Amino acid sequence: MPRKGMRGFFSSSGHSEQRQRDRRPAESSVSPSRRTFSDTLMEDNIASAEQIIGRWGLDVAGSLFSAAGRPDSVHLLRAAAELHRSMVFFSDPSAESSASPEERSAALFRAHELLAAAMRRLEREMHLLLSAHHSILNPRDSLRLQYASSSDASDVDDAEVDGSGVGEAMQDLRAVAKTMISAGYGKECVRIYTTMRKSFVEESIYRLGFDRKKAHVHKLNWAAIEPTIQSWLAAFPVAFRTLFSGERFLCDQVFKGSDTIRESCFADITGDVAARILAFPESVARSKRSPEQIFRLLDLYDAVSEHWPDIETLFAFESTAAVRSQAVASLLRLAEVARATLADFEAAIQRDASRSAVPGGDVHPLTRYVMNYVLFLSDYKTTLADIFADFPFQAPYPPPESLFDATAAATPPVSPPSSSISIVNSLHENPWRSPPSSPTAAAAGSISARIAWLILVLLCKLNGRAELYREAAISYLFLANNLQYIVRKVKESSLAVLLGDEWAVRHAENARHYLRSYKRLAWAKLADEIPMETADMTAEEAERRMRRFDDALEAACKGRAVVSDAEMREQVRESVENMIVPQYRVFHERCKATVASAAALRFSPEDVRNKIDVVFTGSNGRTSSHGSSASGSYSGSTATGSSRTTHRSE
């Protein structure tokens, strides 16, 4: 810098000689008889500077920019500039000066000593200003509060900040920095500024809940990492949109006259901290994988990608290229791990080894888990589309043909069918139903296909679980419950947009088909025990047919049939009652007229209705003297798969 060049003018012997001169009263170093006008002007500048600098030595405790000292601030800054001019004048052999080399050297030494004293004072003033105003010198935040109408705080000009405490402090800092840099003391100025502001940035990041220890977490278990991710997600936007952008603005204002210095200062203050913060997502991505972690990985990806324009703009310098590189590295690593984690999730569904049948054909826990998982995935459809943009979906294997004809329901002993997933069936041809109009549409269609495929993998697994039931009727009920649960989840969420109305309608119809199959297999035998013609029936035959009906009723009602969906439960209950009770009522009335023993009539029509109610609801909403004992054996039963109102919690 210029300062080093100036110091080369002096020798150690010259310093000793100058100190002797400085002990004398201030007077011209050039002989009066030989002085030119320029000599006189420069000597007067040095004399004036000596007075103001003498009043503000390092022993003065107050600040030059306080209310008491501010009148002298302009004079001292001007004096420093004039001293530098004098040094340039007396060091220039071609200057208009009649002074001898010895006299010029003496004047140069004198100006240098005074300038050095002035710079020491300004170094202290820089420190005082930064210390006194460190909490308000985050201009991005402060100016946004004061000038809410401004869309970009970096566009706030001098006139806007002049009237505020922040603006005055920045003007003072800019004046000190400009004077020091012009005098060749830029290195000292930058050192003080960067040290003070970097300390402030580090403290601010710590207060936001993120410190150095949290930058490398890949060796921790997930329970310890999770709170750290939450802290990072809260701190990250504040750091980049408020703290770092504020530091960039402050550097631009204080070092307005030098692009090189303001770039260097900003890089020194924020570069390491920003890179460390951006390294955190990459460190998280290196931790041990599990399917549940994907949502936090997507949160981290979202945060970095959303703030990428800020990162690219703020850290656009060559000296801050490491920050941009770290952001890209984190995004790439997060995307890679997210893709692998989703593949792990699919594999986990296929590997599920639970072999116990869910009582009553209720919704399987795997169904609840998978559907809640894909529901959360659908909330990240835009992020997933970005992550899979260069990875078009291809079904790893063709779906089984048996999955695409739910109406081909077989009767026992053939195993019950699984549901169809039409969107997956079309993956090999066109998963979007129409040619994608743009890469964005193609990516969105790919995500729809991936989610449809995950549901298909689930349904294939459920088909195997349906075979665990000994009764084919409960197998159908199990498939109906699970498919209806899936359809309801889709309709109540953003999955409806991803999979489409046709998907939901088709699968809702499949669920109803399974329910009709259940009703036919579970209750048709009971209905067949009710004679259609009773007019010519003898008492003995009526009593025998009644006993057969009673036995069939007991068999049909011996267990619970869980229908999780409330609307579907009411529909099947009413359908079964309408199939059994009216016909039984006619038969019961005929038996009352012909059968001599009242003991032969165990169940009234209301008793039959109540027993059917118990099968589907687990409780008896009606009272009957005949059916009280029978219903008591079911009253303690509870549905293990009761419907819940919040789809995310099930």
From TrEMBL:
Pfam families: Exo70_C. GO terms for biological process: exocytosis; protein transport. Component of the exocyst complex. GO terms for cellular component: exocyst. Residues 16-26 have a biased composition (Basic and acidic residues). Residues 28-37 have a biased composition (Polar residues). Residues 1-37, 618-650 are annotated as: Disordered. It comes from the Eukaryota. Belongs to the EXO70 family. The keyword Nucleotidyltransferase does not apply. This is Exocyst subunit Exo70 family protein. Keywords: Exocytosis, Protein transport, Transport. It comes from Zingiber officinale. GO terms for molecular function: phosphatidylinositol-4,5-bisphosphate binding. InterPro entries: Exo70 (IPR004140), Exo70_C (IPR046364). Residues 618-644 have a biased composition (Low complexity). Residues 231-613 form the Exocyst complex subunit Exo70 C-terminal domain.
